Amino acid sequence: MRRRTSKRTAEDMTSTAPPTAARPAGGGIRARGMLALAAAGALALGACSGSGGKKAEESAGPGSERMTVAMVTHSGPGDTFWDIVQKGARAAAGKGNVEFLYSADPDGGKQAQLVQAAIDKKVDGIIVTFAKPDALKDVVARATAAKIPVVSINSGADVSAGFGAIAHFGQDETIAGEAAGRELSRIGARRALCVIHEQGNVGLEDRCAGAKKTFGGRLENLFVQGTNMPQVKSSITAKLQADKDVDGILTLGAPFAATAVDSVKEAGGKAKVGTFDMNKDLVASLKAGTIEFAVDQQPYLQGYGAVDALWLMKHNGNAVGGGRPVLTGPAIVTRDTAAAIEKFAAQGTR
């Protein structure tokens, strides 16, 4: 679940030419996470290779006719996290002869309208996020009634199957939060902030709630306006200036971690910063030690796996996940392990 920087309407839903991209590195912290990686590997092997169009259709064999998949999320282009999700989706689309459509809106009602637009287009599959699940429940039911399979990613693992989705790809946000809480304790924090940049986003709230369970000190939620980074910085700085005992900050997205580091400097404090999610700049910060850790949910794997799941359902009747979420994380990245994924982050797939 993540943040958003732009809005698109139903009319803006356009096809993107899916380029070939590298496959993601796997990772997870529990047995279910390992099973998820095995499933993802099976997905990668199960679909055909190719670059789309007639050539891909011919190489894929019988039953591999062109299909259209729409992804509708609560974020949009320009956000580093969702750019990685889309890279994974386009990579799977490119080798599976899939036309990939992307649209997004942070407003739950407008997101539902975009899903309805995909239904009206009679696409072959829909990928959604359940950051605000109540807003999407009815429209997803209409999709399944129209016999359009739905896969959810990133947020809403607990409601996905009940809403009729055939699979969910993402991390368990509570488990991921628990991992973050342990990391806050490991770096020596005792009085920490959990910075929530989108009120009402259930996944973000679950992360903070999970962190509170395992953190050995006191963790307080701090709500900020995620669409306005200067305001985010101002809010964090003001809190640090008002409470000198804060020695740890947990942000829920990579761009917010960099802003938190700036806030610590401006406030003259010594709070250590950890975060959720990855991007190229964050890897450099981890290596430099300005950010202590990142909880990576491997967004490339979410996009890739979701498109592959729909491809396999259409062309081979496969069901992925066995009715349970396919976990793509959490994978903890620290200063000691950042170098191992640096090249993948540089190419925009981690």
UniProtKB/TrEMBL annotation:
PANTHER family: ABC TRANSPORTER PERIPLASMIC-BINDING PROTEIN YPHF (PTHR30036:SF7), D-XYLOSE-BINDING PERIPLASMIC PROTEIN (PTHR30036)
Pfam families tied to this protein: Peripla_BP_4
Major subcellular location class: other
GO annotation, cellular component aspect: outer membrane-bounded periplasmic space
Keyword Iron: no
Name of the protein in question: Simple sugar transport system substrate-binding protein
A single MF term (Gene Ontology): carbohydrate binding
Residue ranges with Low complexity bias: 14-24
Gene3D superfamilies: 3.40.50.2300
Subcellular location(s) per record: Cell envelope
Family: Belongs to the bacterial solute-binding protein 2 family.
Species of origin: Actinomadura viridis
Residue ranges occupied by any Periplasmic binding protein domain in the UniProt entry: 72-312
Alphabetically ordered keywords of this record: Sugar transport, Transport
Region annotation (Disordered) ranges: 1-27
Taxonomic classification: Bacteria, Bacillati, Actinomycetota, Actinomycetes, Streptosporangiales
